[in-house]
Amino acid sequence: MSKTVDLNADVGESFGAWKMGNDAALMPFLTSANIACGFHAGDPRTIARTVALAVKHGVAIGAHPGLPDLVGFGRRNMAITEEEAYQLVLYQSGAMRAFAHAAGSRLHHVKAHGALYNMAASDPQLSRGIVRAVQALGDQVAIVVLSGSETERVAREAGLTVSCEVFADRRYQDNGLLVPRTDPRALITDEQESIDQVIAMVTQGSCISVSGRTISVRADTICLHGDQDGALVFAQALRAALARQSIAPRAFP
Amino acid sequence: MSKTVDLNADVGESFGAWKMGNDAALMPFLTSANIACGFHAGDPRTIARTVALAVKHGVAIGAHPGLPDLVGFGRRNMAITEEEAYQLVLYQSGAMRAFAHAAGSRLHHVKAHGALYNMAASDPQLSRGIVRAVQALGDQVAIVVLSGSETERVAREAGLTVSCEVFADRRYQDNGLLVPRTDPRALITDEQESIDQVIAMVTQGSCISVSGRTISVRADTICLHGDQDGALVFAQALRAALARQSIAPRAFP
Amino acid sequence: MSKTVDLNADVGESFGAWKMGNDAALMPFLTSANIACGFHAGDPRTIARTVALAVKHGVAIGAHPGLPDLVGFGRRNMAITEEEAYQLVLYQSGAMRAFAHAAGSRLHHVKAHGALYNMAASDPQLSRGIVRAVQALGDQVAIVVLSGSETERVAREAGLTVSCEVFADRRYQDNGLLVPRTDPRALITDEQESIDQVIAMVTQGSCISVSGRTISVRADTICLHGDQDGALVFAQALRAALARQSIAPRAFP
Amino acid sequence: MSKTVDLNADVGESFGAWKMGNDAALMPFLTSANIACGFHAGDPRTIARTVALAVKHGVAIGAHPGLPDLVGFGRRNMAITEEEAYQLVLYQSGAMRAFAHAAGSRLHHVKAHGALYNMAASDPQLSRGIVRAVQALGDQVAIVVLSGSETERVAREAGLTVSCEVFADRRYQDNGLLVPRTDPRALITDEQESIDQVIAMVTQGSCISVSGRTISVRADTICLHGDQDGALVFAQALRAALARQSIAPRAFP
Predict the structure, then answer these.
(1) pTM of the model
(2) Rounded Cα distance, C65 and C111, in Å
(3) Which of B40, C1, D141, D194 has a CA positioned 20 to 30 A from the CA of residue D154?
(4) If you measure CA to CA, which chain D residue comes closest to B78?
(5) What's the gap in Å between the CA of B67 and the closest CA on chain C?
């Protein structure tokens, strides 16, 4: 049996006249794309163009709904209710699905953005709001969740198709969650260490925590970054390393 | 053969903490509802509630996409391109469809709002943008157009299901278009005259223009207003008059 | 020496085509007005009209800046920094001041709105952001703060003119802060009890806490509500009660 | 008598996480800056940073108010009334002035942005709305207008301090207005031709129209572009050419 792994990135984050990221260069390295839906980034024209780019490269189309906070790029925590989370995700994902269908494709998954993703990771109520929205979408739309998060638990209970996300460049705590960015050890800056972590996660379902313990991590999809220097170089190196391990990049599931 | 006519109204026009209209009282009189999609009015919570209300009363759910102008309520002309019209309508209608599906219903039609509707009525390019968006939605979603407008012409050429809208309280020019609001004769204020005009439109496919000529008008759907004093009284009187003519209220088509 | 007290209310909370409150009826009962600035409510036209109404009735003009959250009416907590609070308040208050000057008046005070006011009440950093913005405005612009809050403390340290706000219809804890709305005892619903509390606050600088203790409360300004049934009746009754105690309504300071 | 000319550019056009232009590099070449105010671009943080940059380089601070159209960058015509123009400009300029004052500077001028500037250039009513707003600001705030436009005429009638703007890289019609961008001759792409046109405008008050006639043009301020390749190189060349003619760059008036 051959192993596969999904390679995702957040794209379509331009807004009106403002450009962000280099989607055209990054897209060929991806197997799935999380496309901003207009609340924290993106606008109808940007969505149309990004969906076209994904279709061109055979990349699975995901909705990347965020909080209604353009100025803050959806990164500022907001006190929203489960119901508001449900409605925000349903609205944005529904809009994205129309563009996917119009381009002859389909909506493959939903991944919450920024503060919504992070707040939900430890909040069962927000997770429920997001999960209920994905359920309401039907059509076997999958949900991308932080591996080991409350969102994963709630999504599995609901019977959704769940894709667990891991990070190549982040270190993990003993409990399987990410070392917070406020901790100086949060980021892996060495390319080889990042790649080794990914290979271990994908082939063995584990990684070494920041305290040196072997912990279980489920790696269905790996998050690549598009907005940093060296992002494309890293994506290339990672794909080469996966190939050496006979791990095929493929959208999950 | 029994006659039928659709009775529509613009609803879901509240926004956040601000209320507009009396949707709960108006909905029982309708057979189809044009629900604001968030660009000129409406927000995810308002959409969810309005869709639920429509489902409760068996009213067909329509998207009512508008220009991105909350402060101006989508009533100020904006110089948008065909492509922007396409993207605006696709985005908003896709979002609305997700709520319709989540409520166990379907998206029945799309009717452009305010300045978008009015600009497109005499602009083939904008009409094409709107029509292409409805085509992209597929699923036999119908389009509601001003009877006799460019939008009607473009929509028929494209093979869409077209529902022609007429107004009970507006007078018509010899060319079949509405007398502009700037003309003092634009509005019919007498209830009986309004009802007589509707009955003639539905039963004979014609009405008397402001200059006294008999002109052809196609009346698939009649637009009721919800935000004016006496709106409910008029809706009740109109339904009674239709009943006396054995015209059944029914969503078109 | 005759006593005076300021009577304030949040006004100008309409937005575009949406109306809220009954400012024209409430304004004659006020001595100062907190006018929404466009981030949580209000828009340039609404501001112009509300400022004109305040000037007509000789009511002092205040800026009522809120979080950038129209859909949530500025009532949802957001994780903003001190710097963002400073910039939000400066921006909105500067805009309001231009309208006050254009109407031949001046900007009298600033009172933060909703979640911004409430978060700052117990957060010295947010309070500092707001206070620094009012300092930057200069021109002896006063700040309205919750009596006993962190915002009061920070504002006094900064040497601002501080107006302490109390509520006629809210009960207080032993520490001088409001009983949270989640507590069933939070609201005073009896009109006479509300009036008695206000009279005690103004004349004795104290009130009876929810546990029965006499606590110090500084009452420079009393917050009236404009958006509830009976608001005008209560405002009238309160003004009559104040008159019987020879307490003159007057903008503070 | 030594000649002077103002060199202005539109800056502060970033928005939230999105960057636009290279203000830090351009600012040293300017004598006055038109700073976006938040409706078409800019946000409170961007305004604060841009104002600080202008103060650091001794550049006069201008408000650059635009239409409420972030997605369209204020470049799409909108049907607004004179009253709406007045209110939009007053609101945005008031906000900008607060930041200028907070930075120890003052609001030097107002220049309308994009579609608002262009629509007003041939529309006396919109021009009146803008002019009335600048009058209401008082404090000797100047207005920057297109040389020869309706806005210039209305502003002079109102007694405002008027700064006439010319473009180094645009050709002019016989009537003194710009050749529309739809005309292939609209843009001057040769650097020396641009510089020669500016020198003639400043020293002789005239330039050669596209049909070869010498026409009068008043050049109080020259608009530089910051968002194009070669912008800084051109700014440098222009300043050198002005220096050779003993024309000193200085904010007008």
Answers:
(1) 0.96
(2) 7
(3) D194
(4) D78
(5) 14
